[in-house]
UniProtKB/TrEMBL annotation:
Protein name (record): GPI transamidase component PIG-T
InterPro entries on file: PIG-T
Cellular component terms (Gene Ontology): GPI-anchor transamidase complex
UniProt lineage: Eukaryota, Metazoa, Ecdysozoa, Arthropoda, Hexapoda
Statement: the UniProt record of this protein carries the keyword Transmembrane: yes
Source superkingdom: Eukaryota
Cleavable signal peptide: 1-22
UniProtKB keywords: Membrane, Signal, Transmembrane, Transmembrane helix
GO biological process: attachment of GPI anchor to protein
Chain ranges passing through the membrane: 513-535
Length: 569
């Protein structure tokens, strides 16, 4: 090794030592624990990677904290913004308020493609196939027959130099998808510390899949690096939302160990922020509890008329003291307080009987004292034929006219029915939207193996801007971490609600009939075959019987006896 080599090596070492973050990226891990008024605790994990670079194919191929597998997919398919969620269970907006990220049952993908892309269908197909491989989910079932480009419901939150319209957006939902361990493992692999260190060690499948609701999500976009927005950074948020119930415990006590099966060993060494927050605003007269250990700090957040008190634990300060556990210990059993439902919630069901036709009913509840403007997106699969003229919107027995309406009829096996309505919900009202539909009789090979189980229909999406932030938790648009939602008062608060996904039994042919016929025919053939085979292969031959002396004696006497008899006759 020459002197120059040593010198270069030395300079390199100094370089690494002096610039603590040569890659310009940061990783934050956070967990918010929020006791809800309905004896449930909402646990929300957020793992945020911010990378100060441009969204280009070349840069995304050399990453440090950003997961390279995902980066390559995003770069190759020119994605500006991406949301993938895998959810099991239904979020109860009425009782639980609003989540940080809303997600429909099953799998959901929303992607905005770059403005320069012309063949969006091809990129969309490629993207969903690649994500299917990355997350071990059946996203490869996404195609034109179940994806759409809604015009009002989704807005680009990513920073771009030129705004794009909804023709660059694709949305698809697969309500049949089952979320399991095989999705959680690849999800954890995308984290810088994997599941070896930090908050991700709490994500054990055994304690996640037995919750009332669980949802994992990946959210990617570009954000402004400075106030003037002259440069952009990439933001990747990986989220896990869990709802645990504490009803089983008489005292309603809960702890991290009880929820996740283990305590926390320490922070991820790569993280710049590693915090646990506990929302203790519900610690009031009819519900008093203590937290052990005591939090590092307590902060007060005032947001849109709602005051929250939040206990903050810095895990890095605690990690030196061995395994770390937070417990809430109630001094007295919890009294049941009055539940105030959320401002806006919805539900949906099917009416009608038989397998020929039915009606889809969506009910929207506005509990606010002001009128609310909402956007309703109905995503109806092509095998449910919808009649637009049959749509009726009523509120207190009165006909309501939508402020705007977008409708694209579906085409068989090609595209779903797309209906988007903008409605004004009067204060303290229930609005009912009914639409008639026919059930299509499919081709026999289009039925899934378990044909009598029925077909799933994805949720409707309701988008609204709430004037106040009651029961609202989501991060503001310009924020990346949970801390950014403290004191984040804005003019309005965007919520998106998903309704139930429905199970519809389409007319199904009697698939057991051919089976029965085959069974019967086989039995008949089998029964006939034996005798026929015998008759056609065996020959009857007469054989003389050789008798021994006993037989001879016997026949002699018999002969005598019958001979005598014959003579008598
Ligand atoms: C919404 O928040 C209010 C007070 O902030 C609380 O009384 C109410 O129970 C909450 N409702 C839900 C559904 O969480
Ligand atoms: C979107 O913009 C393109 C041109 O940029 C235009 O051709 C297209 O009609 C627009 N689509 C919608 C739905 O507005
Ligand atoms: C809850 O309130 C009681 C009394 O108001 C107080 O002593 C206690 O420290 C509070 N608990 C927490 C976790 O702040
Ligand atoms: C939020 O605002 C209140 C009052 O203005 C202040 O006391 C509190 O410290 C702020 N909280 C945070 C997290 O900045």
């Amino acid at each position: 090794m020459t002197i120059s080599h040593i010198l270069i090596l030395f300079i390199g070492l100094i370089d690494i030592a002096t610039s603590s973050n040569a890659y310009n990226d940061f990783f934050d891990e956070e967990l918010m624990l929020k006791p809800l008024s309905s004896d449930h605790v909402y646990a929300y994990f957020q793992f945020t990677v911010i990378w100060e670079t441009e969204n280009r194919v070349e840069t995304l191929q050399h990453s440090h904290l950003f997961p390279r597998g995902l980066g390559e997919i995003i770069g190759r398919h020119n994605v500006d913004e991406l949301h993938v969620t895998l959810t099991e269970g239904l979020w109860n907006y009425q009782k639980w308020g609003y989540p940080f990220h809303d997600a429909g049952p099953g799998a959901e993908v929303i992607a905005w493609f770059n403005k320069d892309i012309t063949n969006i269908e091809k990129e969309w197909k490629g993207l969903t196939n690649a994500l299917a491989g990355l997350l071990c989910a059946s996203l490869n079932f996404v195609d034109t027959s179940n994806s759409m480009s809604p015009e009002f419901t989704f807005r680009l939150t990513s920073v771009t130099d030129r705004p794009v319209n909804s023709s660059h957006l694709r949305y698809s939902s697969l309500p049949r998808e089952i979320v399991c361990t095989e999705n959680l493992t690849p999800f954890k692999k995308l984290l810088p510390c994997d599941s070896k260190r930090g908050l991700a060690t709490l994500l054990n499948s055994a304690h996640i899949h037995n919750t009332n609701y669980h949802s994992i999500g990946i959210h990617f976009r570009s954000i402004c690096r400075n106030v003037a927005c002259t440069m952009t950074s990439l933001e990747l948020r990986q989220t896990v939302s869990l709802i645990y119930d504490t009803i089983v415990d008489a005292n309603q006590d809960w702890s991290i160990r009880k929820f996740f099966g283990m305590g926390l060993k320490g922070a991820c060494p790569l993280a710049t922020l590693s915090n646990i927050y506990v929302d203790i605003s519900d610690n009031n007269t009819n519900h008093i509890y203590e937290l052990t250990p005591l939090p590092s700090t307590k902060v007060v957040s005032l947001r849109g008329g709602q005051q929250n008190e939040i206990a903050v634990y810095d895990i890095r300060a605690h990690s030196s003291k061995g395994i770390f556990n937070i417990a809430a210990v109630h001094s007295a059993p919890k009294n049941n307080a009055i539940h105030y439902p959320s401002i806006l919630y919805a539900n949906r069901y099917i009416i009608g009987y038989g397998q020929e036709r039915g009606s889809l009913v969506t009910k929207l509840y506005n509990n606010h004292w002001q009128a609310l403007d909402i956007i309703l997106l109905e995503n109806i699969p092509w095998y449910l034929l919808v009649y637009l003229h049959s749509i009726t919107i009523t509120c207190n027995e009165q006909q309501v006219h939508p402020l705007a309406q977008r409708y694209l009829p579906g085409r068989e096996r090609k595209s779903p029915y797309y209906l988007e309505l903008i409605l004004r919900l009067p204060p303290h009202s229930v609005t009912k939207i009914t639409i008639d539909m026919d059930y299509l009789f499919l081709k026999w090979q289009e039925y899934p193996p378990d044909a009598n189980h029925g077909f799933y229909m994805g949720p409707a999406i309701i988008t609204a801007l709430l004037p106040i932030a009651r029961n609202y938790t989501a991060l503001p648009f310009d924020g990346s971490t949970i801390t950014s939602s403290f004191n984040a008062s804005r003019d309005d608060y965007l919520v998106q609600l998903r309704t139930e996904s429905l199970l519809i039994s389409l007319p199904t042919p009697d698939f057991s009939m051919p089976y029965n016929v085959i069974c019967l025919a086989c039995t008949a053939v089998a029964l006939a075959f034996g005798p026929l085979h015998n008759i056609s292969t065996k020959r009857l031959v007469l054989k003389r019987i050789e008798k021994d002396w006993k037989g001879k004696l016997f026949s002699f006497f018999v002969g005598k006896l019958f001979g005598a008899k014959k003579k008598q006759d």
